Write the structure tokens for this entry.
Amino acid sequence: MTTVEPRVPARMPVRTSLLWLEAFLAVGAYAGAAGLVLAGPEIVGDAVVADLPFASPVFAGIALAIVNGLLPTAVFIAELRGARSAVAGHLLVGAALVAWIVVQVAFLGWPPHWLQITYFVFGWVILGLAVGHGRSTRAPSRTR
């Protein structure tokens, strides 16, 4: 009797990984923004709302939707369309997420929440994949 070895799936391409990560980021940002805008103090508490810019969960929610929702959505679409700007967009998404977390911790205080640490690492993963994706999409150099 012959046994068949299970196929080990090939490693996901960098492009696909970036698309999944940015889709996850955007969906999470839209959900978080909706929660902040619609039920701010009930979700994060009055003490956190007082530390937000302008003490406004609405402002924070809109900023979250734009920076971590619309930006990754636009880059996701650009990548699907094969736009050359997508690589720069991926770098921008990763950098924006890392900066978002740094600013958030500055406003809300130390120590960071486990979600902030997770998204900080998430941003660096996107940056690392974007660099790899940029290298893989460049035209090969000609040598003489």
Summary: Residues 26-135 form one domain. The CA atoms of residues 102 and 120 lie 8 Å apart. The mean pLDDT is 85. The first helix runs from residue 14 to 44.
